[in-house]
Amino acid sequence: MQIAMIGLGRMGGNMVTRLVQGGHQVVAYDRSSEAVQTAVDHGATGADSLQDLVSKLQVPRAVWVMVPAGGPTEDTIKELAGLLSAGDTIIDGGNSNWHDSMRRAAELEPKGLRFVDAGTSGGVWGLQVGYCLMAGGSDEAIAHVSPALITLAPEDGFKHCGPAGSGHFVKMVHNGIEYGMMQAYAEGFDIMKSAKVFPNLDLPGIAELWGHGSVVRSWLLELAADALKKDPGLDGLEPYVEDSGEGRWTVLAAMDGDVPAPVITLSLFERFRSRQANSFTDRMLAALRNEFGGHAVKAAPKK
After folding, report:
1. Catalytic residue among 171, 193, 246, 270
2. Active site residue 242
């Protein structure tokens, strides 16, 4: 199918490449002309504005928005709404709040525009292994863009979760769980690193060992092993861990549903604490975010 991609950063750029490799025709736009040229080099058609992008698409159009959540996404969708026609579909693949996704779908519906919220997980590794996609929207909207969703996802890695907003709701909870898992790994490795009776435990080797048959094996554990091999003490990282919003929204959803979620809540608060203290736990968290998503890290001050 033909599809447009707006936003060619770490995720969007790789998604363009995967779509092209899957046989799709992609029109790509980013404020960075260098990013557009990179997409063109990988087989996409470049655009120098949203108007230019829309003009290069055949109706019914499909436009994927992969820009930062909040203002950038809001502004992009509003501008697109004035350029697209009834029957076209807008996909928001960023980490938008599910309330915003429900509102946007309702605002676009009177114009005949379809809306899909696609919770996207896979980080910088998605180009090779695919992206787990949690999609919300009408049956018609999902049917329009499903060829692209199937190409982007690994086998069995795409699900239509329900109406508009449900995709971003499921992705929000996914990220809340991720917070808890990362915190548990970080604390466990800190306990081993601090064990006085066993002062020289091979943390990279243990992380690798647990990946073979252990009940705690996971992709995050593989990334932990990779990070520890590069820097066993994680001394090159500043123990400052950001949160991108989904953990906060998950805690609020738990409160709204009267659901006790102490692990996710405490893992969120640990990220707040990391901005005020220095610990191995937080260096591990920073390393994991960098490994799976290419998120920026702060280098430790030189001694």
Report:
1. 171
2. no
Q: 144, 192, 177, 150: which is closest to 253 by C-alpha? A: 177
Summarised one tens digit per residue, pLDDT across range 6-47 is 999 989 999 999 999 999 999 999 999 999 999 999 999 999
Q: Edge-to-edge strand order for the sheet containing 132-136?
A: 45-46, 25-29, 2-6, 62-65, 89-92, 114-121, 132-136, 158-162
Digit-coded pLDDT (tens) for 230-270: 999 999 998 899 988 999 999 999 999 999 999 999 999 99
Dist. CA 233–CA 86, nearest whole Å: 56
| Candidate list 79, 178, 187, 208, residue with the active-site label | 178
Active-site residue, 178 included? yes
Residue 156 is classified by DSSP as T
CB neighbourhood size of 135 (10 A)? 28
Q: What phi, psi does 160 have (nearest 5°)?
A: -85, 105
Number of other CB atoms surrounding residue 124 within 10 Å:
16
Residue 154: how many other CB atoms lie within 10 Å: 14
